[in-house]
Amino acid sequence: xxxxxxxxxxxxxxxxxxxxxxxxxxxxxxxxxxxxxxxxxxxxxxxxxxxxxxxxxxxxxxxxxxxxxxxxxxxxxxxxxxxxxxxxxxxxxxxxxxxxxxxxxxxxxxxxxxxxxxxxxxxxxxxxxxxxxxxxxxxxxxxxxxxxxxxxxxxxxxxxxxxxxxxxxxxxxxxxxxxxxxxxxxxxxxxxxxxxxxxxxxxxxxxxxxxxxxxxxxxxxxxxxxxxxxxxxxxxxxxxxxxxxxxxxxxxxxxxxxxxxxxxxxxxxxxx
Length: 272
Fold this sequence. Notes:
Belongs to the ABC-2 integral membrane protein family. Keywords: Antibiotic resistance, Cell membrane, Membrane, Transmembrane, Transmembrane helix, Transport. InterPro entries: ABC2_TM, ABC2_TM_bact-type, ABC_2_transport, Nod_factor_ABC_transporter. It is a multi-pass membrane protein. This is Transport permease protein. It is built from eleven helices and no strands. It is mainly α. The chain starts with 11 loop residues before the first helix and ends with a helix.
C-alpha cells in the first residue's frame, strides 16, 4: 500500500506533454543555431512578392481587373497566395532537420531512451508550425508595408484566416516529416520537399485559374494550394469562397492523417 505522502506517478498524457515540450525546445534551439536555412527559405517568398508587385504589378493588375493598371489590385490578389507559399518554403527546412536527425543517429538514440516515442515527431511538427506562423507574419508585414490592406475582414474572419494558415502548415508539416525520415541525406530531403515549394507556382497564387490555358487549368485547380488560397482571399478580401473552404479542410485532414501514419510507420520501424 502506497503512502499518502508519496508523489503521484505521472500519467501517460503528462509524460507525453513533458517529453514533447522538451523536444520542441530542442528543435527551436536547433533552428536558432542554424538561422541561415530559415532566412534563405524566408527570402524566397519576399523576393517573389517584390518582383511580381514592382516588375509585373501594373500589367497583372490591368489583366485581372480588365481595366487600367492599378498595382494595389494585384497586391491584394497576390499576398494571400504568397502567404501560403511561405508555408511551403518552411517545409524544406523541416524535411532537412528531420533527415539530419535520422542520418546522424540522434533518432536512433531517442528510440532507446525512456521517453514518449511520439514526442520526437511531435516536437518537430510543433516547432515547424511555429516557424511557419512566424514566417507568415513577417511576410505579411512586408505585404502591408508595400500596400496590402484587408479593411473588409472582420475579427472573426481574421481568426479564421489564421486558423486556416495554421491547419495548412500542420498538414503539410507531417508530409515534410515523412519526407525527411525516408531521405538518405539532408540534400535528398531538400530535393524531395521541393514539390511543396513549386505547387503554389502552378496554383491560383499569381493569376486566376480561368486565365490559364485550358489543358493546364485542371492541374492548377485540383491541388491543395488553390482552394486554400481562394479561401484565404475570401476571408481577407471578401471575395467568393464557394466550396473552397471545405475542400481545403478535406485536403488538410487527409494530408495530416497520411503524413502522421507515414512518419509513425517509419519511426517505429526497426533500424537496419
